[in-house]
Amino acid sequence: MEKMNLTPLSVIVDEVWGKIGTPERDAMEAQLKEELQAYHIGKAIKEERLKQNLTQEELGAKVGVKKSQISKLESGKCVITLPTMSRVFKALGFNSASLDLGIGGKVALW
Q1: Buried b / exposed e across 54-89, counting CB within 10 Å, b at 16+?
Q2: CATH number, domain at 99?
Q3: Number of folded domains that form the chain
Q4: CA-based radius of gyration for the chain
Q5: Which domain range does residue 40 map to?
Q6: Residue 2 domain flag
Q7: pLDDT > 70 fraction of the chain, expressed in percent and rounded
Q8: In the chain, how many H helices and how many E strands?
Q9: Residue 35 in contact with residue 77, Cβ under 8 Å?
Q10: Does some domain include residue 4?
């Protein structure tokens, strides 16, 4: 049996995205973080919409956007802006929200 030569994932990531601390790696990590945040917000929107037995079309009508925009938001395929997030969550019945800044306190978003 032939011996397999395995490469650690960290080596491959360094080759593709650059070493930690390089501008290329920092940019890629920032993009991934943004996409992950969009995914989590979209997931929260979808879960609440389903709890309320709303279709994407019905939520879109409440927000003032098309079904396709709700689909993109829920799938995390677009980064949601704060004004859009406010309209969506208000349409779902969340009349206030705040951003927790840790030791900086909380900031009311709407």
Answers
A1: bebeebbebbebeeebbbbbbebeeebeeeebebbb
A2: 1.10.260.40
A3: 1
A4: 20
A5: 9-108
A6: no
A7: 99
A8: 5, 2
A9: no
A10: no
